[in-house]
Amino acid sequence: MESGLDWSAYVNREAQARQSECSPGCRLEWIEASMGLFHFMMAILGQIFKNFYGERADAWSLTRCMEALGRNPAKLWNQTNQQVKDFNMCKDFFDIVLDGCLVAMISFYFAPDSTTLANLKHHLQVASSDAKVLETMSGKLTSVFTDFHGISRLSDHLGPRSNDKASSARKRTFQNLALFVQHGMMFRTLDQAIREGDSGRISMCISYFVVWFQGTNNHNYARETMRLTACLKHIWSDELKQFWKQNCVVNLFGKAGGFVALDSVNEYLVREIKAMMGQSVTPETNERLRNVLSLLVFDFKDIKRTIADEADAEIFDFHSTPPSPWHDIRRIAPLILEGRLLASGGSEDSQLEAGDAEDRLESPPLDSYKALDLFAKGSAELGTTKAIRKLKDGIGKGDILYGLDEDEEINQLQEGEQA
Amino acid sequence: MTQHNVPTLAISPTSPQPPLSQPMEPSKRTSARTLSQSKPAYWDDRVPDVYDISGNPDILPGRSGSGDIELRLASAKANLLISGFTSLLDAALHEALYAMNDSSIEHFRRFCDSGCLVNLLKTLHEARILSPTVQRNLGQLLWVRDISDASQVYCDDFESIRKSSVLNHSLAQQSRSPSVLESFNFGSIFSQLQVAGPNLMALLHSFVSPLDQDSSKDASDGKRRVVLTICALAHCRNDKTNFVPAMISLYLYASGVSERPMIMMNHVGLGISRRTLGRILNRMAAHARGRLRSLGPSDVPVIFVFDNLTVPATVRYARLHNNSEFLAYTAGFALVPPASRRPTRFDRKSDMRAERANEIRIDDFVPTLSDFDNICKCFQALLLQATRTCARSLEVTLPKLNDKMPVLDPIDPREAPKFNLCPHTIATKGSSTKSFKSSIPFNRTSGFLNPKQKNSFSSFVEIS
User: Fold this and answer.
1) What is the pLDDT of chain B when averaged over all its residues?
2) Chain B nearest CA to A163, separation (Å)
3) For a Cys-Cys bond, which of A102, A143, B239, B426 suits B386, CB 3.0-4.6 Å?
4) Distance from B254 to chain A by nearest Cα, in Å?
């Protein structure tokens, strides 16, 4: 069983725990709860926003990018609850920012002294004659961002040569940017794996995110990802593992790249049911909505598609061309290049070093915040083995809640309901 | 008697009556001798002359070439009427459907429609080849006697069309199943209606045929309009002949069209009434519930997915009993994976090996080396994708790059699972067990959460 919000999977287990003293037929033993991948992605994106939100005065922060792109921060992020307000809107924004960072990295690789994208076209034209140049570039940049334990050391190694306060802030700024790119690429890898329906890649991404969540306050996902990993590696039989892998995402129309998470399908269902709600809610309309119309959402979808196809009305699969994000990307990349944020770091390769470029330019604004290295912090948290012991004890004793304190349980449920 | 070359004739094994001519496929050809032995009821042995496909006169063996022509015509007319045809033209049109190819039918129709037949009779009369009596009898036989006979031909066709099964799928009586939806195909409906009433369909189709033969207009467009016309007329005659209008109304309802346009569509014959639509929806919902119930006793592994459904119910003017408040529900569905992606059944003891919890170690939660290799390839692919996007925007053509992610364990996209929606329920606060119970509408063993409530499926979901 998959459930949408993070607390719902927990609710299932709590329900099983409460039913465990009932007669055998009512113990809900035929249920195995699991988390939904769409809400999992929402939680990851929420962590990224929380980690890199920063302030407008920072050299590198999502708030500064919002300002540069003319977005209203209040529509994207709820600072009070620390949650994204609209997942799709936030993901679009995140994609633009990440692409802007990657373009800045590519520009910096070819021309470390350049503070604009003016020469990028020329460099790409030169590089286009040989694919190896571009593959070398991607390989070297990859080596920077896949050093999961060493981005902080990397900035120490390649950062400014002096040890004054300003250089420390510059290292922090570079580290924030590099961590954003690393975390963002992890998120994008999971997103593509889900869309392409590759459960092997999804499992691979979860093996990183299980570490991430250990260092966050998101205890439900920390526990759920651990439990899922344990089940995939030890607890579940091969058939059950294969069942999860083959059905964790679903393709509604048989198209390549058309896979969606199961709870994402449920979001569609919720949206359709909401659209069918009348303006006046009475017991009669409520009854009809719940027991008749809500059962027919997918039938309606089939009918609409069949008749539209028969009438040659191409109203499905009729996607308008999305606006090119290049205009926005061109506004994000200069934030990085003009601020010389990469010049304080780079890679061990000489091509990535900025040399003394920063000495010749004015000092840009620096970051006032320090983003968490989720992998490093999660690894440290995992190293205490507290969570693993709880998990082992719980599963071993058949305790579905595996040792969660009653108070903690109630608090988390309340948090979930508030969310 | 001089032995003529016997023309080769064709017989279709599916024809209710043997055809007169038309060699369609060599393997199905038969001789005129064979054909004469399986003659249709209206075939008059005393009529000597038949014509082969080229229009050349021929005499079938065993037939006499003499006799009173008036008697033969009267006899032929009687046989035609006994056989259910109003005229020879009607019979010929009927035969043509089975015996001739499309172009022959078209030529024959053009000949009749152009008035050539009338001119031929007139010419024969003026040349005094036929006596007036013979000419009148032949005209009556060949052509419809008056306009009422013409309308009778089309009325008979319309009646058989109206009663054809393709227009009488009752969505209100039988639950919607995929086969009903699959049967909704304008081309297929048109073909079936053509069989039921060929003359009327040919007449209507001639109205939508392009005047310009070279026109590239899609033929299916004309067929759709003919089917819709027929359906509107059939619905007018009998309210129960409403398959196509019902589908159109369902489409409009599913698209969120409000009630008023649907009433108008009903009154112009292209939709059904609100009440009938309600009955169809109830029936479909009952069928959906039945599908859901059937999952319970089966051993098929099912994936339930559910989520909160919270919506603010706002009111413009608040009253004592009319306040704005949040409505909290739980909405979900049961997914049945395709057979290739599910085992026959699971067993908790053998598939959930809790005793193996002791084997869990910290290493299990750290990415492996192969994970690291794969994530490196993924990052590299992402960087190359970004490079390609950038180059495309800058109008630079890049060489072929390896910007594909590694494929590790792909799922086959071709097999779609089946969705069984659960009735969405009122979420109960303070008791997650009840909320959970209400989310899962059945018991694994019996198919019902409470076996006593088999007939009131929805009653138990409102646990409060």
Assistant:
1) 69
2) 32
3) A102
4) 5
Tens-digit pLDDT profile for residues B413-451: 877 777 777 666 665 444 444 444 445 544 444 444 443
pLDDT over 80 (residue A222): yes
pLDDT at B59: 42
pLDDT of residue B47: 44
| pTM value surpassing 0.90 | no
Judging contacts by C-beta atoms under 8 Å, the chain A residues touching residue B361 are 388
Q: How far apart are CA B305 and CA B282, in angstroms?
A: 24
CA distance linking residue A345 with residue A366, whole number of Å: 14
Q: What is the pLDDT of residue A151?
A: 59
Provide the total of helices (H) and of strands (E) in chain B, helices listed first. Answer: 17, 8
> Residue B58: CB partners within 8 Å, gap ≥ 6?
B4, B6, B7, B32, B49, B50, B51, B52
Burial B174-205 (b: 16+ CB within 10 A, else e): ebbeeeebeebbbeebbebbbebbbbbbbbbb
Q: Which residue has the tokens 């373009």?
A: A103
Q: A175-184 burial, b if ≥16 CB within 10 A, otherwise e?
A: bbbbbbbbbb
Q: Does the distance separating the beta carbons of B289 and A234 come in below 8 Å?
A: no
CB contact under 8 A, B251 and A142: no
The distance of Cα A294 from the centroid of its chain, to the nearest Å, equals 31
Selecting from B375, B402, B440 the residue whose C-beta is nearest the C-beta of A146 gives: B375
Identify which has the larger pLDDT, A14 or B206: B206
Provide the sign of the torsion angle of the four alpha carbons A135, A136, A141, A146, taken in this order. Answer: positive
Tell me if B307 and A266 make a contact (CB, 8 A cut-off).
yes
**A61-97 pLDDT, tens digit each:** 888 889 888 888 888 888 787 788 888 889 999 999 9
Q: Which amino acid is at B273?
A: S
Could you tell me which residues come within 8 angstroms of residue B207 by beta carbon, excluding any fewer than 6 positions away?
none
Q: How far is B70 from chain A (nearest CA, A)?
A: 53
Q: Which residue of A has its CA nearest to B408?
A: A200
Q: How many CA atoms lie within 13 A of A109 on its CB side?
A: 25
Q: Output phi, psi for B219, to 5 deg.
A: -70, -30
How many residue pairs from chains A and B have C-beta atoms closer than 8 A?
373
Does the distance separating the beta carbons of B389 and A396 come in below 8 Å? no
Strands B49-51 and B57-59: antiparallel
pLDDT tens-digit series, residues B356-381: 888 888 888 888 899 999 999 999 99
For residue A140, give the chain B residue with the closest CA. B380
Q: How many CA atoms lie within 13 A of B115 on its CB side?
A: 3
Cβ separation B289–A199 shorter than 8 A = no
CB within 8 Å: B354 and A398: yes
Q: Tell me the shortest Cα–Cα distance from B201 to chain A, in angstroms.
A: 20
Q: Which amino acid is at B352?
A: M
A267/A37 Cα distance (integer angstroms):
12
User: Domain boundaries in chain A?
Assistant: 36-240+323-383
Which residue in the set A8, A188, A240 is minimally distant from B351, CB to CB? Answer: A240
